[in-house]
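Hi team,

Below is the intake form for Fungal-type protein kinase domain-containing protein from Serendipita vermifera MAFF 305830. Please confirm the fields before the structure is written into the shared record.

FORM ID: S-0412
PROTEIN: Fungal-type protein kinase domain-containing protein
ORGANISM: Serendipita vermifera MAFF 305830
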Amino acid sequence: MTKDMQPYCDYLNQISALFQDNDASWKIQFITMGREAPKHHPTQTDCQPDIVAIRTYPGAMISADLLSWSHLEATGQVVNGQAAAEAETQAGTCGACHLQARPDLVSTVGILVGESDFKLFRTGACGILHTPSIKWDTPEARRLLYAWVWRLYHPDTDPSITIKMNKHNSNSRIEIKKRPTFTIRSGSETYEDLLVLHAGRSIGRRTIILARQGTAHHSIDSDSDTDSSNPEVNNCNLNDSSSGVFNSSIVIKEQYLDSSRIFIEGPILKKIHSSGLFPGVVECINHEKVRHGDRAVSMSCKETDQDGVSSAKSRYKTRIVLKDQGTRLADVRTVRTFLKGIYDALEITRVLFREHKILHRDISPNNVLIRGGPEPYRGDIPDYLNDMCFADYLLKPSSGDDNPDPESDCRQRLTTSVFLIDFDCSENQGPDSHVLGDPCVRMGTPTFMARMVRSSVYPYGLYSIPPMPDLDSRVLPRYKKALGNRLEVFPAKKKEFVEIPAKSKMKPEDFRHLLRYDAESVFWFAMWWCIQAQPAEKSIAEEKIPHSLWVNLAGESGSRNALFVKDFPSYPFLHSSYARLVTLLDEMREHLQGDLDYSKDEDKKNPEYVHEALQRVLLKFLVENDKEEFMDLQMADQPRSVAQAPLGSRMY
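The structure came back. Fields below:
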């Protein structure tokens, strides 16, 4: 196969030679990949281009088997023994993968070559574009190929971020870096030796997360390299002395946002922390709309709808410098840590809305992180945080050794390991929102969306909503001390029967995301996590997840309410080692039955009602099961597998 590809590379290299400057430090060369795939892609893709364009330096070469995705300047696919449509799809896919590895490029280019013709590709946040098939022997073929290769020497870049592909070794000779790094200028700061930690879909927001090599060890291969052998020198570049921010926690997030977007993550994070540090929310050091001179770095294209009407579509680049790093709460290995984590996530979201009228709107596994240990509250404590308290404080046994100093006690209450990230789906419902039009009202990750966010149809039927749970006597003293006002605002009453007529719907114009929808997302997160949990001990037998249950939870069949809220699975669906968690999930779902729009209880009109109910259920379970072995039983790294669908069953 390589032999068939080489003539294309030879021809493109002849064109490339026409643009080479004798004084240039590098040139573009086309090579075949053979059976090798580029390394170090942030999504671990197995996509494999047939041909790639790379920079070569005098006296320095890198072989195809060592190439990283970020070394590439272009990708190419050869129609060779496969259908043209399949090869075209592969060419587009390679271009999209290339874009994920090159945040310095606004768009990437690619080529699809065949025996008689070729197509040229351009991929950016607005989509994948390509030319019609162009015959090799037509007059325009050479002109187009010249222009395409010229673009490789003059790429469409964001000038505030540069890539470094080479370095000088101990003998002052140029070496190609095993993995190129990026340098970003943001505001008055320069951040060096950055690697791509995460990349979202290329088309759309095109989210890319960058961090220093040493801070991203959990997800970046160890064979990458940086320029400085002195870690103290590297540390200086990532230190913001004015805010006490150190490189070990710097993360840079870049996105291409729709030009019609109303709520933007950077300003929302600045508002959240405007009156002092808000516990449990990622901190924003700087945010900006990235510019190239006097214009925004952007990507534009035209779209034609099904009626043939064309419209312009554009996305502009934004950048946020964030302080905080952690791992996903979903990846913790004990029930105790996870349950305390989701309690804290509920506390963060309720106080965030109460004080700033900001809703996260995408509570899901990728957006709830946990640090290696609790972080004490820093700085002056705003008065509004007097009614905020996290699980560790409440679950600490009361004793005579409790710190009598009010300020120290308050800092202990505000200590948590959990923090929320990814506020680009969030909504500011405060009076300062400056809404210019209707926001995208239905946001989130489908599996974890509240039912009324995924559908405008109310869950009809007769429901029995239990009273607000009582607190266990072992946690009540500390709860009274820290959050006594909540006991008065949310007293325990009788259960309430709520009836929702069939075919009840909410009008689209009446929909607004509510705080309790974020609470329901926490429930779906807990359900998802508990179902997948299995012990690490290999001597314990495997127990697969029932197929129909998983399909109804993670799919889009619309059966979540019937299976998990209105009713509850009557058969074992958790791993038997964690069977006690069924009680917790059952009690949580009881408080989500029906919809509180149909409740006549005034207490339930309080936006924080569902949060309070779920948090009390969690506290009760944590206290009652404190000494149980399953609470600290180590979980396996891999989730439970899903059983195969029975023959003849419907597949969604």
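SUMMARY LINE: The radius of gyration is 28 Å.

Thanks, M.
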